[in-house]
Amino acid sequence: MSSVRSAHKSPAGSARERLLIFSRKGFDSSFGGRPSPRLPDGRLVSLPIPEPGSPITYGNCLVQPDLGFADLLGQLGTSHITLPHGGRQVRLPLGPGLGAHLDPDLRRATRPRPAGWLPLFGQADAAQQHLANQHVAPGDVLIFFGWFRDVEVEHGQFRYARRADVAGRLQPLAKDAVWPLRDYQAIWGWMEIGEILPATETAARHPWAAEHPHLITGVARHYRGANTVYISAPQFSLDSRVAGAGTLRYSNICRLTMQGARSRRWWTLPDSFHPQNTSRPLTYHPPSAWSDPAGGRVTLRSACIGQEFVVPINDGIQTWLTNLLTSAQPW
Question: Which stretches of the chain are assigned E, i.e. beta strand?
Fold first, then answer.
């Protein structure tokens, strides 16, 4: 196991460790109330959480030219979307006009784009303070993960797969075979950070960014402070064949939930993520959350709190990250 640290030059010119940030985004049991779909062709479609009143809607966000997010959800049997409010769950009727919090916004084809558009991610309040405390900077890499379930086609319509595990156990699978656990956490997108700006400065410097949720007045007024926008780098600096940001098709390396797990929160990762091999541990994950490394892998009980988990990139993590972005084809 390697403990060599990978460093890059910060904008100020001093050597610093590059950081990897796991960022939990998309539907969960509270926001949305159902898993996002993995389509039969492997596309991981992270569904944005509701944002009532936003001009960005489930109807005008597209999976493909003939399929909006509202259409896809309808085919999956969704009539309402949940949203926590005032200590209880509100069920919002699904329709093409229901506002969506499209953040991160990574796919050019999701909506019509002005000239100069680049992928964007916004963060605010306590979650943004956590990123600031970890000194997240341009050159660091965000990896977006969420809750997914496989989807199949029946009579020309998408539906959640009904397949279940045999006796609650998973069987050994050939390399690159489809994993049969119905629900799992998986990495669906990425962004190498090119620029970080306060939201108040972003639209002035980059008018093409004005329709991002963190810049829409009716949405941004809810943030209490530190409203910040992250703008993608044009290319992934570790491999020039890879874009600076995008969304992924599934491959087994995308999957975080371990084979045979009873909970989505049990992850398997390369042992280069173990705290003994990093200069500081993955945030929100104390030593008790980790198994002892074995066979080049480690098991992690991932935290149920926190939107972002930050760790310095060592040589092993860098190799894993490059493999992730070159084996899980963007769409």
Answer: 7-9, 15-17, 19-24, 36-38, 49-50, 62-64, 67-68, 80-85, 88-93, 100-101, 120-123, 141-154, 157-160, 183-198, 228-232, 245-247, 266-270, 297-301, 308-312
